[in-house]
Design a protein that fits this description.
Shape: rod-shaped
Strand content: 15-25%
Order of helices and strands: HHHEEE
Largest sheet: 3 strands, antiparallel
Number of strands: 3
Helix content: 40-55%
C-alpha cells in the first residue's frame, strides 16, 4: 500500500509538471510574438513622418498613420497566436520628440490550466528612437 501511495503522489506531481511545461511553452511563444510585434509597431510607426514638416526641415511624426499601422500589425499578430484565446487587444502609441513608444496589451482567457496559476493579460512595450543630425 505504501508503494501505491508514493507512486500515486509522484504520478500526480509529474502530470502537474507536464501540464505546466506545456502551458509555459504557449505563454512563452505568445510573449515572443508580442515582443516582435511591439518592436515592429514602434519601428513602423516611426517611419510615418509628416511630409509638410519634413519639407520645411523639421521631423514630426504622422500620428494618425502610425496608429493605424500599429493597430493593423497587432491585428495580424493576434491572428497568428492560435494557442491562446484572445478576448480583446489594445495598442497605445506615445509620440515624443524623437521617439515612438508602443504598449501592446492582450486580454486572454486563463493561459495556465493549473488552479493556483492565473495569467489573463499579456503586455509588452517597445520604444523606437529616430536618430537624425
Amino acid at each position: 500500500m505504501k508503494t501505491f501511495i508514493i507512486f500515486s503522489g509522484l504520478l500526480l506531481i509529474n502530470v502537474w509538471a507536464l501540464g505546466y511545461q506545456g502551458d509555459m511553452g504557449r505563454f512563452t511563444h505568445a510573449q515572443t510574438l508580442l515582443k516582435a510585434a511591439a518592436e515592429e509597431c514602434a519601428a513602423g510607426a516611426a517611419l510615418f513622418l509628416d511630409e509638410q514638416a519634413y519639407a520645411e526641415g523639421h521631423i514630426e511624426f504622422d500620428e494618425a498613420a502610425g496608429q493605424a499601422y500599429a493597430e493593423a500589425h497587432l491585428a495580424d499578430t493576434v491572428e497568428k497566436i492560435k494557442d491562446i484565446q484572445v478576448n480583446a487587444y489594445a495598442c497605445h502609441l506615445t509620440f515624443g520628440d524623437r521617439t515612438v513608444t508602443v504598449r501592446l496589451t492582450l486580454e486572454t482567457a486563463d493561459i495556465f490550466r493549473l488552479p493556483f496559476l492565473s495569467v489573463t493579460q499579456l503586455r509588452r512595450e517597445s520604444t523606437y528612437e529616430f536618430n537624425y543630425i
